[in-house]
Amino acid sequence: MDLFEKLVSNMGPLALHADEAHGYFTFPKLEGEIAPRMKFRGKELLTWSLNNYLGLANHPEVRKADAQAAADYGLAYPMGARMMSGNSDYHEQLENELSAFVEKEDTMLLNYGYQGVLSVIDALVDRRDVIVYDAESHACIIDGVRLHQGKRFVFAHNDMENLEKQLVRATRMAEQTGGAILVITEGVFGMSGNQGDLKGIVKLREKFQFRLFVDDAHGFGTLGKKGAGTGEEQGVQDEIDLYFSTFAKSMASIGAFVSGDKKVIQYLRYNTRSQIFAKSVPMPLVIGALKRLELLRENPSLKENLWKVVNALQNGLKANGFNIGTTMSCVTPVILNGTVEEALHLIHDLRENYGIFCSIVVYPVVPKGIIMLRLIPTAAHSLEDVEETIKAFSAVKDNLANGKYQVSEIMDLSSNSN
Ligand SMILES: Cc1ncc(COP(=O)(O)O)c(C=O)c1O
Question: Would you say the pTM of this structure is higher than 0.70?
Fold first, then answer.
């Protein structure tokens, strides 16, 4: 059998409707400045799908710092991996400022969040160790766990009773192998918006010995009094052994970091393969991150504006009879019932007739019969944007209930069909 023939005969679950959907539902092109209103196929749409939580993507000071750093250093500097020739004072300054902000002794920069998490997990455990992780973990955690050559146990999402059961099994296993236990969860789960029950997890330290790694991609900058994330929000930042976040969301950039005790971070510097064997973060991203962190730290109004929009959106949706699940964060899912075909027609209607662009999640990511629209409010949105969106959502919800989207075939909206 030819490998490529086999691959293209089954393109995988996400490509199920690619022929009709490519360029519209998948791989859409949003054009113009990153803002609540962007152009899609020539039309201005109100967008709710960018993780630009604090509105920093287009902040004039950020744009200026990015451009100046690119002019001063170009994208190449520093060349090589951090360990070999890719280090700089700015990289270390950013690490120090992040450590102070998230209240950890030390920090290691990572060139991407996904790769970073995968590789940090790989560095932390050997075949004797046992990983215990939340069932709804992000792909980067799942893939990090896949690299692990020892035992792993998954606990039902945020279910502390089940976690306790898994920890009993993990403890028994670790005693047999002479290894240790790593528990992994998220600060905020990006689909449901649930906060990981960090408080519940750290309470289990009374009974079990383990180290805790938290991926706080969506919590950093959005939760906690000063924006230091879900640990700060729940009052357990001290008890998170390794705190991770990405620059891809609140910081509106690329890159990531992991923070913890000095000795452990130093261990990670010398053992995290995605950093040792890859070029370090380019200078414009480092200097740009320093500027973003400064704004995040010194402008609490960014987070206040964000939450004004989040509260208006979530309360407005609930008041209008929408099911927004169990979110405890900015991530705002809207859960409807319908088929994949109905979901696609609904989204088409929202974009073409109501001027709203949001992400859609359907089977196989959510169970069959569920349509999840996912809204990401930002500090840059206005209360008028919220009102307009709730009106539009109410209209398409009625249309869905009245069977307007019950069309058996999926329309061909691919870029090729234009
Ligand atoms: C929970 C979580 N972890 C990790 C990542 C990956 O981060 P990055 O985009 O920096 O690779 C994401 C998505 O960006 C995420 O949502």
Answer: yes
C-alpha of residue 112 to centroid of ligand 1, in Å: 8
Residues 6+ apart with CB under 8 A from 195: 187, 188, 189, 219, 223, 230, 233, 234, 328, 329
CATH of 3-53+300-417, one of 3.40.50.11500, 3.90.1150.10, 3.30.2350.10, 3.40.190.10: 3.90.1150.10
Q: In this structure, which residue's CA is closest to atom 3 in ligand 1? A: 217
* pLDDT given at position 417: 53
Atom 7, ligand 1: residue with shortest CA distance: 113
Task: Delimit the domains of the chain by residue range.
Answer: 3-53+300-417, 58-298
Identify whether the C-beta of residue 325 lies closer than 8 Å to the C-beta of residue 371.
no
CA dihedral 101, 103, 109, 112 (to 10 degrees): -80
Backbone φ and ψ for 107, nearest 5 degrees, come out as: -145, 145
Distance from Cα 137 to the centre of ligand 1, integer Å:
11
Block mean pLDDT (10 aa), the chain, length 418: 95 82 92 97 97 97 98 97 97 98 98 97 98 97 98 98 98 98 98 97 98 98 98 98 98 98 98 97 98 97 98 98 98 95 94 96 87 97 98 97 85 66
Compute the C-alpha angle 361/13/401, nearest 5°.
35
Verify whether ligand 1 is closer than 6 Å to residue 374 (CB atom). Answer: no
- Given this model, what pLDDT does residue 362 score? 84
Percent composition of the chain: helix, strand, coil (DSSP 3-state, to 5): 45, 15, 40
Residue whose CB lies within 8 A of the most ligand 1 atoms, among 142, 195, 246, for a mutation test: 246
For the segment(s) 58-298, the CATH number from 3.40.50.140, 3.40.640.10, 3.40.630.30, 3.90.550.10 is 3.40.640.10
Check pocket membership of 112 for ligand 1, CB cut-off 6 A: yes
Measured from the CB, is residue 248 less than 6 Å from ligand 1?
yes
- Report whether residue 281 contacts ligand 1, using a CB cutoff of 6 Å: no
Q: Give me the pLDDT at residue 36, please.
A: 97
Q: Residue 364 has what pLDDT?
A: 79
